[in-house]
Structure formats: structure tokens, C-alpha cells
Amino acid sequence: NRGGNRPYSSGTNATAVCRNHSRATKGGNITNAVAFNGGYVYDGYRTDDDDTSVYYNNGTKDVEVDADEDYNGYPLEKYGTKYATIVDGNDTDPYDNYLLDLSTGKIDDDESVGDKQDNAQNKLKTKLSKTDRYGKNSITNFDPILTNKYGEVWYQYSAEGDDDAADRTTGAGVGYYQGYSNDSGKYIDVTQDANIYLALKFIFCIVYFIFNSFFIINFTRW
Q1: What residues form the membrane-spanning segments (predicted)?
Q2: Could you give the residue ranges of the DSSP H alpha helices within the chain?
Q3: Could you tell me the CA-to-CA distances from 198 to 36, 130, 182, 191, 202 in Å, in that order?
Q4: Per-residue pLDDT at 171
Q5: What is the Cβ-side half-sphere exposure of residue 46, based on CA atoms within 13 angstroms?
Q6: Which residues 6+ apart lie within 8 Å of 105 measured at CB?
């Protein structure tokens, strides 16, 4: 039970949140807090009269976010452009992490962080399958980067190449390609040979076009 009064304690997060409400924080305790666009969310209580919970303030007043206590953890780590994480289960399991919209104070309980990562990986998989340098079902690693920061969510991926990948890659990553991808599946291939491969492919297309044009012209004349 997270409700009830607690003895007073203070901390950096509590101080940061309470600067705008210094008189209302006596006897309070704030465990985690995150600011966003003139507002904030915090886990704790500001006065002895408050229950321990998660509160959202858009610049006017505190509103309890999880009154039904459906969630058991509130790390409030920054995610994406306007979210913070809350937990229903294991905080290290992305499928138990959900997102609190810091612009509205609403919890998105339809899709976990793990679900979002799966969707992003599937979108990348679809795009890679349309190229001729990647193998089918090729993604071997797909991990988020730059966690607990505001901004677009990006992932680092490793993917198996096609049958000729071993001839185009060297070193420990032979046969694999490395890159970065976002939630929409847009990706950047940073493998050393990526630009060389595309350049060679372009040159091949030009040579093929010239050869065929020459053949057609001469065949017509003949």
C-alpha cells in the first residue's frame, strides 16, 4: 500500500520540484521527479496530508496519475520526446515498462516499451528485406541507445548480409552489417563497406545501361 503519511525527508529531486511550491513541501518526500515543458511529474507526496502516489502538474495544480495503484514502480526515466517510464512488474523488463505522457499526464497502457521496440524492429526488418545486401530474417541484435534522454528513439542493430556479405565485410563482423534505426524503420547503415557497395552498384548499373544501349543501337543498324 503506497497510501498514508510518511516522515519528512528531502533530496535533490524534491528540491528541484519544490522550488515553485516551497511552502507546500514541508513534511513531504519525493522519490523521483521529471520536468517537462513548464510542468512536472513526481513520485511521492508534498505534505503530510497527501498520500504517496504519482502526481502530474502542468503548471497549475497537482493531479494524481495512478490513483488505482495499477503500477508498482515509477522510475520516471525520460523516453522519446515527451514520455517518462512507469512499471507494472519488473523494471528491467521492457514489456513491464509503460509510458506516461508528460504533456497530458495520461498513461499509455495499450503498448509497453517492449512492444514499441518490437514494432520498430519489424518495420526495420520489412525495409531491409527489400534490399539485396541483407538476408531474410537477418536482424540479430536490436538495442535502444541514448536512454533516459528526451529526443527521437533510436536503436543500434546488427544484421546478417546476403550470400555475398562475407566477401564484402572483414574482421570480427564478417558477414554482418551494422547500423542505426528509429521507430519508423528508417535506418542508417554504418558498415565500412556500405558506401563502397552502393557506389559499385551504381557503376554496374551505368555500365549495364551503356552496354545495352550500345547493343540496341548496333542491332538496329544491323
Answers
A1: 196-217
A2: 12-18, 113-128, 165-168, 194-221
A3: 42, 15, 22, 12, 6
A4: 47
A5: 22
A6: 41, 56, 58, 63, 65
C-alpha cell at 28: 513531504
**Residue 36: all three cell numbers together:** 517537462
Q: Where are the alpha helices (DSSP H) in 106-185?
A: 113-128, 165-168
Residue 47, number of CB atoms within 10 A of its CB: 14
**Nearest Cα to 25, choosing from 39, 38, 6?**
6
124, 181: one domain = yes
* Mean of pLDDT values over 31-48: 93
Q: How many domains does the chain have?
A: 2
Question: Is residue 149 located within the same domain as residue 103?
Answer: no
Closest by CA position to 168, among listed 141, 199, 207, 214:
199
- Residue 97 falls inside a structural domain: yes
19 or 117, which is more confident?
117
Three-state DSSP class for residue 217: helix
Name the more confident of 202 and 12. 202
Model pTM score: 0.71
- Does some domain include residue 158? yes
Same domain, 105 and 152: no
Can you read off the three cell numbers belonging to residue 8? 519528512
Residue 203 lies inside a defined structural domain of this protein: no
CB 76 within 8 A of CB 86: yes
How many residues are listed for the chain in this entry? 222
Assess contact for 109 and 170: CB atoms under 8 A.
no
